[in-house]
Amino acid sequence: MSIVDRLEQAARAGGIPVRALGGVDAILAEADGVAESPFLDILVASAAEASPDDRTRLAPLLIQAFAVNRHPSTYRDALEILLGGDVLLQAMLAQLVPVLAGRVTDRRTNPQALIAAYALEALFQISLDHAPTRYRVLMIMSELSDQESDLFAEHAAKLVGAAYHQWGEAPLLDTLAALQTIDGAAGEAAYELAMAALARALDAAAMDQIREGLRSAHELFAVALTADPGRLDAHAYCAIIDILELFASNGAAIDLDAPLLALEQALDDRHELLGIGRIPLWLRPRCDREIEWCRLLTTVRRAAQDLERPSWLHAAKILEQILSLYEAERTVAMGRGLHQIFVPRIEASFVRERGLVAHLDDLLAVEDWDPSLRVTADRLRSSIARAEASLPRIVEENARFPLLQGVLPDEEAALVPAKMAATLEALLADRATQPRRIANPIVHRVYRRLSTELSHCPDYEGNIKDSFDDLLLQVIMFCVDRQDGDKRTQGTRIEYLRRKDATEQDLQLDLREFLRGNLLSADVLAEIPGVAIGRTDLYVIFSNCRVIIELKKHEGVADAQAAKRYRSQAASYQATNVRLGFLGMLELLDRPGPAASLEECLWIETFIPTGASMPRYLVAFRVPGMLKPPSSFS
User: Fold this and answer.
1) Alpha-carbon span 153 to 623, nearest angstrom
2) What is the pLDDT of residues 205-236, one digit of tens each?
3) Are 577 and 542 in contact (CB under 8 A)?
């Protein structure tokens, strides 16, 4: 009996030891036939259970089989067995990765296209734990085009989308856009583009960016539904976006029943369908995310009703739900945008309804109240206090539109129709929180974004906020001036921005002189010792606080990933003063094109040191170096 016949028997029996197949020598004697047989999965399962010596001897045959086997279902099952066991995979990994990459490249016929898709899926799974494979996978994915076959493109779109959520590489979105033009993959690619748009929206800093991103995601999910009306996951995410949009709206009352019902129905049907088949490991987290959304948004419905009431019967239970919503990022790890959506309505309800604040104060006075929620409750109470302090005048208790009542006589405020009053209240709230006017619209937008994100820091309030904002605006203007400047207007002071050997001391001297000439409300010193047992780069002293600016030279792209290398040192200077600071990076990079835009050069880094529980806040900024004149790019 041949080895292939014995493998067929083993397939019926559910597996067989290597020795029962005749031993390693007998298997290797029929290597070519075994490698091309439709029983590769049985062979891999037998090898996985074999002795270390037998596994070592069989590994080359398995590599050969993964290079030549043409049976898609067997190939998929064999890869699943291989990836499920660490010992055999590690023995084959170095030779397996290039073989799988070769199968992806050879995808001309439909059977090969399906095997290519399974090979790409395996490479992606390997890359999640094996960094060198990641770059090979990214290169393969970035080279996919609109000339792919329908069968391969449909599978590839799902993998490219998962890779984007894992690594956030922008070129993968270009790949999805190309795959969307292929008829067989249009729906899948649109769905993955929608998921990417949703993730970007919920990681935006400003509400207008969040809502614009949500609308884009909704449109892309609708495209996916046009291609396949039965896509329950797309139905679910459309309902999720509808709920988020309603909660972010300015209306006083919201009715979430219809979209929540649509969400629950779509998820119920989807999970019943998913229970029929097998879900790959790399897709399970995304299915779990849908469950998280359903739980969160069910809480939203209860909270939306409770926030419109002046008092509660079961205050502790209800307030814990609202605080969980206030910290929504912990429930669904989708970025800071959820905070922007939920927080304004929650805080406004507490400011409007004095009874709700009383509940909060009563629970904060109870020492053994849930400590996991206490920090969140304290932050909510601080935000309420800031909002109360900004009211134009004292308003009557339980006032529904406190800002409007603060500027109109009581008898006139009572005559304003409810819808008009809600609109006016929203406009007044926007005006009350509007920062100082800045002529440059981009600078204004950057300033507003950073200020909004810093509002979560308890130290960023009152006079300290005013002082810090003065410094923040000057740092933004420094970034603008150094990208716009040339030798005719700034002379030799910016020569270092053209040199590849520039140092952080060059940046320190330049920024110090800029701040000393423009920041009149503080003293700016350099290299001050005795702070956190170290020496600061720039030490800015206000009458009510001190702020440290840590500066670094960075060779390569000075983005958020690079900032993680330096933020621990920068945040260490905040241990005994306000938890606010700056981290500046001189970016030394030989770019083929222009430097990053101003909006990409400033962001907020939030950092909790090991063993601590209170976050520290850094305004990170990069100053592009090695600049070239625009004429050099033509």
Assistant:
1) 41
2) 778 788 888 888 999 999 999 888 888 889 88
3) no
Quick: pLDDT tens for 396-411: 433 556 666 655 655 5
How does the average pLDDT of the chain come out, rounded? 82
Q: Is the dihedral of CA 184, 188, 192, 193 positive or negative?
A: positive
Order of strands, edge to edge, in the sheet holding 602-607?
523-526, 538-541, 546-555, 580-588, 616-624, 602-607
Beta strands in 369-528 (DSSP E): 523-526
CA–CA distances in Å: residue 588 to residues 17, 500, 555: 59, 6, 5
Q: What is the pLDDT of residues 429-439, one digit of tens each?
A: 555 444 455 76
Decide if 596 contacts 442 (C-beta within 8 A). Answer: no
Residue entry with tokens 């800071």: 336
What tokens does 408 get?
A: 């109109």
Measured distance CA(122)–CA(243) in Å, rounded: 36
Q: Which CA distances in Å does 221 have to 122, 151, 173, 343?
A: 27, 21, 15, 26
| Rounded-to-integer distance, Cα 137 and Cα 614, Å | 38
3-class DSSP assignment, residue 632: helix
**How many other C-beta atoms can be found within 10 angstroms of the C-beta atom of residue 92?**
20
If we measure between CA atoms, which residue out of 245, 253, 259, 237 comes closest to residue 207? 245
Residue for token pair 């429930």: 331
Q: Which residue has the tokens 């001897």?
A: 57
pLDDT at 391: 52
Crossing angle of the two packed helices 232-248 and 207-227, in degrees rounded to 10: 160
Residue 198 and residue 220: Cα distance in Å, rounded? 10
pLDDT of residue 533: 44
Two tokens at 263? 């969400």
pTM of the model: 0.57
Q: Which residue has the tokens 């100053």?
A: 623
